[in-house]
Design brief:
alpha/beta, Aspartate Aminotransferase, domain 1, Aspartate Aminotransferase, domain 2, 2 domains, four-stranded antiparallel β-sheet, 13 strands, 40% helix
C-alpha cells in the first residue's frame, strides 16, 4: 500500500477501521478466552479515559512528567503491598511480560557477573512449562536455556530436585511459575526456593498471569501456596498489569526483593554525544497512557474490587470444571486461578478445538499434552454454560466422525 497523496476524512477512515475489525475475534461478547481480559464495560471505560488523558506523555522523561513518575512509583508500591514485598523492595512498569522477564534476566546476569565472578557463558534452569519469553531473552543475551521435565505424578508442576541437579556455577537464574500458562498450575515455589538457596541461585517467580490474581484468590479462601516475596529465596517477580490487573495494554511490572538487585537492571548510557540517558527497562519511550491506565484501574477497583472480580473468575472456572467432567473430560493438574486445560480420553483435542472455532469460540490449546485451554475473565461467567453446551455438541460431531477441516491454532 502506498501512502495516499491526499488525506481522507476521519469519518471515512473510522468506518474503514470498523469494517476491518468486523472479522476479528468477538471478545466483547465473551467468546474469546485468550489475548483479552474482559473485566466489563465500566473498567474498559476507565482504561480508555485514563489512557487517552496521558497518551502523548512519555515515561522516559520523569523530570518533564513527574505525574507519570509518581503514578509508576505508586503502581509498584501497590503491587508490592499484595506480593509481600519487604520495605526495601522496588521495581518498574514495563511494556509486558516478555519485557519484565527480559529485564529480570538481565539483572540476574549482571548480578552474577558483579557479585559471583561469572565471566564465561551463563545458563538458566526452568521447567518445561515455563513461558517462551525466557527463551527469547536468553537468545538476546546468549544464555543457555535448560528446560527440565515436569514431575511425573500428574501434577504438571516443576520438579525442584531435577531443576537443582541441572544447576551449576554458571546458572544465573532458576524459574518457577505462578501459575504456568499451559496448565494453569502453580509451581512449588517454596521447594524451588529451598533448592535455590542451597545452590546460591537467583529464583524468579513468573507471575505474569497470577501476580494480580493469586493474592485476591487467597483473600477469598483459595488455598494458594506461597509464591511471592513471602518465599525468602525469591529475588524477582514478573506480574502483568494488562492480564488479571485489568489494565490497558501494554503494562506489566518487574519487581525486586531489594534495590541492590534492582540496580543491576537499568541501562545507563553516557558515552554518546547527547545528554546522559538512564532507562529502567528495554524501552526508551514509555507510553504514558499505559502507566496512567494501570494506576487508574488499580485505584478504581481497589482490594475489594479485585476480590470480587477474581472470585467471579474462580467460580466460573469451577463451573467449567464440573461441566467438563460431566462430558468425560480430564482437567490437567489442580488449577486454582483463571486458567484451565482439559482433554478428553477418547476424542482428538485439536478436532474439538476446530469444531468450537466454527461455533465462534476463539480459545487456545496446549500440545504437551494435547488439550483445550481457557483463560477466563469475569465476562465468561455470562457465557460458560453456552460454551459447555457447544462443547458437548462438538464432542458428538467428532465422535461421529463428522468433524470438518482442522483449524491451526498457534500464537503468531
Amino acid at each position: 500500500m502506498d501512502m495516499p497523496k491526499t488525506g481522507k476524512s476521519w469519518e471515512e477512515v473510522r468506518k474503514e477501521l470498523e469494517a476491518r475489525g468486523a472479522g476479528d475475534a468477538k471478545w466483547r461478547d465473551g467468546k474469546t478466552a485468550v489475548y483479552v481480559f474482559n473485566a466489563g464495560p465500566e473498567i474498559a471505560e476507565v482504561q480508555h479515559e485514563a489512557y487517552t488523558a496521558f497518551m502523548s506523555e512519555n515515561g522516559l522523561g520523569p523530570l518533564a512528567f513527574p505525574s507519570l513518575a509518581q503514578m509508576e512509583r505508586e503502581v509498584v508500591e501497590m503491587a508490592l503491598s499484595i506480593l509481600n514485598g519487604p520495605d526495601w523492595a522496588t521495581g518498574a512498569i514495563t511494556s509486558g511480560g516478555t519485557d519484565s522477564i527480559t529485564m529480570a534476566m538481565k539483572a540476574a546476569r549482571d548480578y552474577a557477573r558483579a557479585e559471583k565472578g561469572l565471566k564465561g557463558p551463563a545458563n538458566i534452569v526452568l521447567p518445561q512449562s515455563a513461558h517462551p519469553a525466557f527463551d527469547k531473552a536468553a537468545h538476546l543475551m546468549d544464555v543457555e536455556v535448560r528446560r527440565i521435565p515436569l514431575k511425573t505424578d500428574g501434577s504438571y508442576e516443576a520438579d525442584p530436585r531435577a531443576m537443582g541437579d541441572a544447576c551449576d556455577a554458571a546458572t544465573i537464574m532458576m524459574v518457577g511459575s505462578a501459575p504456568n500458562f499451559p496448565h494453569g498450575v502453580i509451581d512449588p515455589i517454596e521447594a524451588l526456593g529451598d533448592v535455590a538457596e542451597a545452590k546460591g541461585v537467583w529464583l524468579h517467580t513468573d507471575a505474569c498471569v497470577g501476580g494480580y490474581f493469586a493474592p485476591f484468590a487467597r483473600m477469598n479462601g483459595v488455598p494458594v501456596p506461597p509464591f511471592d516475596f513471602e518465599v525468602p529465596a525469591v529475588r524477582s517477580i514478573s506480574a502483568d498489569l494488562h492480564k488479571y490487573g485489568y489494565a490497558a495494554k501494554g503494562a506489566s511490572t518487574v519487581l525486586f526483593r531489594d534495590k541492590k538487585l534492582y540496580d543491576y537492571m537499568p541501562f545507563d548510557a553516557q558515552n554518546w554525544s547527547g545528554a546522559p540517558m538512564k532507562t529502567p527497562t528495554l524501552a526508551g519511550t514509555r507510553p504514558g497512557g499505559a502507566i496512567s491506565a494501570a494506576w487508574a484501574v488499580m485505584n478504581v477497583l481497589g482490594v475489594e474490587g479485585y476480590r470480587e472480580k477474581q472470585g467471579l473468575v474462580c467460580e466460573t472456572r469451577e463451573r467449567a470444571e464440573e461441566g467438563f467432567k460431566r462430558l468425560g473430560f480430564e482437567v490437567l493438574g489442580k488449577p486454582m486461578l483463571g486458567l484451565i486445560a482439559f482433554r478428553h480420553p477418547e476424542h482428538d483435542s485439536f478436532a474439538i478445538y476446530s469444531e468450537m472455532y466454527r461455533k465462534g469460540w476463539f480459545t487456545s490449546i496446549t500440545i504437551d499434552p494435547p488439550s483445550l485451554h481457557l483463560m477466563l475473565s469475569p465476562k465468561h461467567a455470562e457465557v460458560i454454560d453456552q460454551y459447555i453446551e457447544d462443547l458437548a455438541e462438538a464432542c458428538e460431531t467428532v465422535a461421529k466422525g463428522k468433524a470438518g477441516e482442522r483449524v491451526e491454532a498457534r500464537y503468531n
